[in-house]
Automatic annotation (TrEMBL):
Protein name stated in the entry: TBC1 domain family member 8
Gene name, Swiss-Prot/TrEMBL: TBC1D8
Single annotated GO MF: GTPase activator activity
Domain called Rab-GAP TBC: residue spans: 455-642
PROSITE patterns for this protein: TBC_RABGAP
Species annotation: Sparus aurata
Length: 1073
């Protein structure tokens, strides 16, 4: 196979390799000892060396080297296990390259040419392998070539799939192809000699929806911040809609919220994404949501089968899903029969004899001496073998790492109510256990749904919550985990623990269990242990309310695992730093209102008011709005049905109040209507009649199941995928508004131009994430998050640019030509160093916007000041080839950290602090003239060189050159005169001059010069004021710097060039690396 060229030294390799074929440029070599008679000492020796040192060579005994005449360095370009394979590569090189290489005069050009060809062959092989995974490899390969040809994106922009479609412009359709890649959607059409093509980054998509018009039965509408595009297709419309939603969702989670949202490990590597992986991922997300499994579970098999259900005395048709640690079954009608079997509960999985009545049966035996029968399984042998392999692994881990543990015992309720209704419900549940089983692997049917709607008996509530959430399996497989977490976390102080302490006494303050130190201490331990377990979440408000309710019905350790199940599985992304999950579900809730309550949606056009009212319903599971005894019935439904129960109950509550809500005029009135409804006497009851307490909440729950029970988990997951796009983009808009609000007071450019500059700045960051190598991607992403003082709390997303990114934007936006490419690159490096005030090798948007504003909108003196600062330290380094900082310690050119006095004394701390506060106050005044260090002769020569480069190509070029020549002569004379004056002065005079000088300037100058002051050249100096005064004597220069510059046109030009220019640079870097 072809290899990415790698250098080798022939003099070291010849001892282990034998040359079989050779010419002027290539060598075909065989590993010494390979193919020789066995038992020879060379073969044994090389074999031993291969085993110890060089496993790659042992695997591939043949290789082809690229050699350049008169050079000791060669490159491995191909290898193979068989001589036939390597001979094919050799023949290709001889017939296609050998003749071409003879015309090259420069040996370095030969190496570059061959390496480029080999890398192209490798890329072709990769495309071929990707195409082979598709349903029609030849068509996909052809589409891939067209995609690369039409759009010119780097090879790392992997094509996922493509569709034939029409793109509509008003009422005019354009037939073409829609290409979906990992970072973009692209459209190309060529009809009647007219070409239409465009690229939409997923990061710019704000909304995805289906629309219907008179001409199109149904179309896919993709909205960005600038415009909308509509696509229609006769075939695969649903599939295309799903894939677009998935790719946009994955890209936005990866690009906009990689620190907050969980993303599957496969999807974190975009180059591995294929259409097949997207299909598998969609099924996995559905399975995790339906069975509420841990987010880390990997889906292995999906098989149609039938399950023997004793309660119906028949086999129920459905689907079997197997993951790392679970066997899950769901009937064809979602929710009518569900079975979850943790593999930790399984004793054996065996094949039974197949008959005509029981084809391909499999028996699953569990520890409670029960067995489950599955029939009609396709590929039964492979399935059973795979399951048994995972089962043996789990059983081995249990035997090695787990101690014998007693059966889990559930605490009795702290709210036990001795009443007939509780006893009736207990008997109903006991009967249900006898018929459907008890524990995590009981059958979950519509009957259990009715029992849950009545309210779980308080004596069984803790057990059933543990069972329905499968927290019991987590507890059993993590014996001692909670105790060790408590020991590690207690005593540690952090932002999370401070928030926990503040909220402890606000958690069910009226309940007696939390009016004493025992209950408060248990709540503290549970919340602190969870914050220690999951620092990404830490602690979020409303977790205290959930945890306190869980502690009322479960033991402390059980309450901890129930909290883990709620925060990490049942309400994913709800409790991260920006509560993204809750906001996504609010957006989904709005769409469900439009779908299920259209009349209410018609009368209340802005549904955001209703969704904002309902936010607490989702975050606290109605605990904050319903009376306690009614709210725990909602929690019962939540543990059985997950978030679906909250959606259904919310829709039922809105429907019950639809008439009043339709007549409401503002958000406050709607809030009062719903508050009165939940505080209605129907939901409260006399303590002497506890049965009435549950009556109406039970009716509401039953109504929600009757009217909205057809709401499926699959539908909710699809809506979440689409609405997450809108929520993330809304956060992105907020971050943009905040950034612009901070920068606007400091700049003079128009708001429109500032917005466009921000977009260019952000796009530059994204381009590195799209196509940069792994290290640059990681660095860029880490730089985008602004940390709080604690280092753990993420405050906001803030885009920053590193040096290569900045230089790319510099070349697009700088208003003057920089002369030669080398000098322009040098100026870009100096500008970056000057703007990087925190010395973190990153430039913020505020710093970038300030620099650009100076170039385009400031007065002449500010532009000259900027140019002056670019030619003194720290911007000007000791070696222009190495853009690192100077070796001597650098002080701020504006304000030193300490001030050196002429006598060598240093001001004490109090004086320094006083001086720093005074300087800070001065910096707030815009008109304060800040002293700049003097410029020596070497720096002034560089300054002149920059000015000459700026004037190149200007219509008044000759006049400007004459003007700058005059100014240069004048400044040189000024510097020389000053040098002679200082040289002839006495030592006393020098000391007096030192006392009169500004101490800040002296410190800055000393700190920035280092040892340079000892050289003769450093005695020749000029000041910024002298250079500015000299420039003002030439009218041509004044006009040049004062002429208005069109920033809008420059930004428009940069938008056109940015993508392809940056893509080309990254592609070039990848080829030469």
């Amino acid at each position: 196979m072809w290899l990415n060229p790698e250098e080798v030294l022939l003099k070291n390799a010849l001892k282990l390799w034998v040359t079989e074929r050779s010419n002027d440029f290539f060598l075909l070599q065989r590993r010494r000892g390979h193919g020789e008679p066995t038992g020879r000492i060379t073969g044994l020796l090389v074999g031993a060396l291969d085993t110890v040192l060089d496993s790659n060579a042992r695997v591939t005994p043949f290789r082809i080297l690229l050699q350049v005449p008169s050079s000791q360095i060669s490159w491995v370009i191909a290898s193979g296990a068989a001589i036939e394979e390597v001979n094919k590569h050799w023949d290709w090189l001889v017939h296609n390259l050998l003749h071409s290489l003879s015309v090259f005069e420069n040996k370095e050009d030969v190496a570059s040419f061959v390496k480029g060809k080999v890398k192209g062959l490798i890329a072709e092989e990769l495309r071929g392998r990707q195409a082979a995974q598709e349903d029609d490899p030849e068509k996909f390969r052809e589409a891939l070539l067209k995609f690369e040809l039409h759009f010119g994106l780097p090879s790392s922009e992997k094509l996922v799939t493509y569709y034939s479609c029409c793109c509509w412009k008003g009422r005019v359709p354009r037939q073409g192809f829609l290409y979906l890649s990992i970072n973009h959607m692209s459209f190309y059409s060529f009809l009647l000699g007219k070409e239409v093509k465009f690229v939409i980054p997923w990061a710019e998509m704000t909304r995805l929806e289906r629309v219907s018009t008179g001409l199109m039965t149904e179309a896919i509408r993709v909205s960005t911040r600038q415009r909308q595009r509509e696509f229609s297709m006769f075939l695969n419309r649903d599939e295309a809609f799903g894939v677009i939603g998935q790719l946009a969702d994955i890209a936005l989670r990866r690009l906009l919220d990689s620190e907050g949202l969980e993303l599957d490990r496969v999807l974190q590597q975009p180059t591995r994404i294929t259409k097949r992986i997207l299909e598998e991922q969609a099924i996995r997300e559905y399975v995790l949501a339906l069975f509420r499994l841990p987010r880390a579970e990997k889906l292995h098999e999906v098989a149609s089968c039938s399950l023997w259900t004793p309660h119906s005395r028949s086999h129920t048709a459905g689907t079997l899903y197997t993951t790392d640690s679970y066997l899950c079954f769901s009937s064809r009608e979602e929710g009518s029969c569900i079975l979850i079997i943790p593999l930790s509960e399984v004793l054996s999985i065996e094949k039974a004899e197949s008959t005509s009545l029981l084809p391909n049966p499999v028996i699953v035996s569990v520890r409670t001496k029960k067995a489950f029968q599955l029939i009609e399984l396709q590929d039964r042998n492979e399935l059973v073998e795979s399951l048994n392999s995972r089962l043996r692994s789990i059983q081995w881990k249990q035997s090695m790492f787990l101690h014998e543990s007693e059966p889990v015992s559930y605490s009795t309720s702290m709210l036990i109510c001795e009443c007939s209704m509780e006893q009736v419900k207990e008997r109903l549940w006991e009967d249900h256990f006898l018929e459907f089983g008890r524990g995590v692997h009981m059958f979950r049917t519509e009957k259990i749904q009715r029992l849950v709607a009545m309210g779980i008996p308080e004596s069984l509530r803790g057990e059933l919550w543990m069972t329905l959430s499968d927290a019991s399996s987590e507890l059993e497989s993590h014996q001692g985990y909670y105790t060790s977490l408590v020991q590690k976390s207690m005593g540690h102080s952090s932002l999370a623990t401070e928030e926990i302490e503040r909220d402890l006494h606000r958690s069910l303050p009226d309940h007696p269990a939390f009016q004493n130190p025992t209950g408060i201490a248990a709540l503290r331990r549970v919340l602190t242990a969870y914050a220690h377990r999951n620092p990404k979440i830490g602690y979020c408000q409303s977790m205290n309310i959930l945890a306190s309710v869980l502690l009322l019905y479960a033991k402390e350790e059980e309450a901890f695992w129930l909290l883990v199940a709620v925060c990490e599985r049942m309400l994913p992304d709800y409790f991260n730093r920006r509560v993204i999950g809750a906001q996504v579900d609010q957006s989904v809730f709005e769409e469900l209102i439009r779908e299920r309550l259209p009349e209410l949606a018609e009368h209340v056009p802005d549904l955001s008011s209703l969704s904002s009212v309902s936010l607490s319903w989702f975050l606290t599971l109605f605990l904050s709005v319903l009376p306690f005894h009614s709210a725990v019935c909602v929690v019962d439904c939540f543990f059985f049905h997950g978030i679906k129960a909250i959606f259904q109950l919310g829709l039922a509550a809105l429907e019950a109040n639809a008439a009043q809500l339709s007549a409401s005029t503002d958000d406050g009135q709607a809030l009062m209507i719903l508050t009165r409804y939940f505080c209605n006497s129907d939901f409260f009851s006399d303590t002497d009649v506890p049965a009435v307490r549950h009556t109406n909440i039970t009716d509401l729950i039953n109504q929600s199941y009757e009217k909205f029970g057809d709401l499926s988990v699959r539908h909710i997951e699809r809506l979440r995928c689409r609405h997450r796009i809108q929520v993330l983009q809304a956060h992105e808009d907020t971050a943009k508004e905040n950034a612009l609000r901070v920068v606007t007071p400091d700049v003079s450019m128009s708001p429109e131009n500032l917005t466009d500059v921000y977009d260019l700045f952000k796009t530059e960051h994204f381009i590195s994430l799209y196509w940069g190598d792994s290290s640059s991607v990681a660095a860029a992403e880490a730089a985008a998050w602004h940390h709080g003082e604690s280092g753990c709390s993420y405050i906001e997303r803030q885009y920053r640019l590193d040096r290569p990114q900045f230089k790319s934007l510099y070349g697009l936006l700088v208003p003057w030509p920089g002369g030669s490419n080398q000098h322009a690159d040098t100026l870009a490096n100096r500008t970056f160093t000057l703007l990087d005030q925190e010395r973190k090798n990153l430039v913020t948007f505020r710093e970038f916007a300030g620099w650009l504003d100076t170039l385009y909108c400031e007065e002449l003196n500010e532009k000259i000041r900027l140019l002056y600062r670019l030619h003194i330290p720290p911007a000007l380094t000791e070696s222009e080839d190495d853009p690192s900082l100077m070796k001597s310690p650098l002080m701020s050119t504006n304000r030193p950290l300490y001030v050196n006095l002429p006598s060598g004394e240093v001001k004490d701390y109090q004086e320094q602090l006083k001086q720093m506060l005074q300087d800070l106050a001065k910096e707030k005044e815009k008109d304060v003239e800040k002293p700049l260090p003097l410029m020596n002769q070497r720096e002034f020569i560089q300054f002149c060189k920059t000015l000459y480069g700026m004037f190149h190509g200007d219509p008044e070029e000759n006049e400007l050159f004459q003007a700058i020549a005059t100014v240069t002569s004048l400044v040189l004379q000024i510097g020389e005169a000053g040098h002679r004056g200082r040289s002839s002065g006495s030592e006393v005079t020098s000391q007096e001059e030192g006392k009169e000088a500004d101490p800040a300037q002296v410190a800055a100058d000393d700190g920035s010069r280092g040892d340079a002051s000892s050289t003769p050249e450093s005695d020749w100096t000029v000041s910024y004021a002298q250079i500015l005064a000299s420039l003002l004597t030439e009218q041509a220069l004044v006009q040049f710097f004062e002429q208005p510059l069109d920033l809008s046109a420059k930004i428009a030009e940069a938008k056109e060039k940015q993508y392809h220019q940056r893509a080309g640079l990254l592609t070039l870097q990848q080829r030469t690396s």
